[in-house]
Design a protein that fits this description.
Elements: E1 4-9, H1 17-31, E2 35-40, H2 54-58, H3 66-76, E3 79-85, H4 93-101, E4 114-120
Parallel strand pairs: 1-2, 1-3, 3-4
Length: 125
């Protein structure tokens, strides 16, 4: 059975290693008959979470920017895939901010049950 997969690319670098990894995943997912939506955080306007928790009551963030649109796409997906470069042994800052802003999903009836992390890093050790 085909699944609706939401792939979120978090690197701001054009043709980054994590984007290339995500592209390979997307190609395979499509070839397997799945419906894939691809979102890049590059050029998106996503403000920092204010921690007001209004999203828990409203079902969406009070900040009106691209994060609300992205969160709604995540909510409708069967599978969510995050692709990130690893900076200083951690996910990208853009990914962390987007996860914080998707806090409205906590109290919602989101569809996804599977979440995957695709990451790339350069380390000599």
């Amino acid at each position: 059975m085909a699944k609706k997969i939401c792939v979120i690319k978090t690197s701001l670098r054009l043709n980054s290693n994590s984007d290339q990894l995500a592209d390979a995943f997307i190609q395979s997912a499509k070839e397997s008959g799945n419906d894939v939506i691809e979102i890049s955080l590059k050029d998106k306007k996503i403000a920092f979470c204010k921690g007001c928790l209004s999203c828990q009551k409203l079902g969406h963030c009070v900040i009106d920017d691209d994060a609300n649109i992205i969160t709604e796409k995540i909510k409708q997906a069967d599978v969510v895939v995050w692709a990130t470069p690893i900076y200083y042994y951690e996910m990208s800052g853009q990914m962390k901010v987007m996860i914080d802003r998707a806090n409205s999903l906590y109290t919602s009836n989101y569809q996804f049950r599977d979440v995957y992390l695709l990451s790339t890093a350069a380390e000599n050790e």
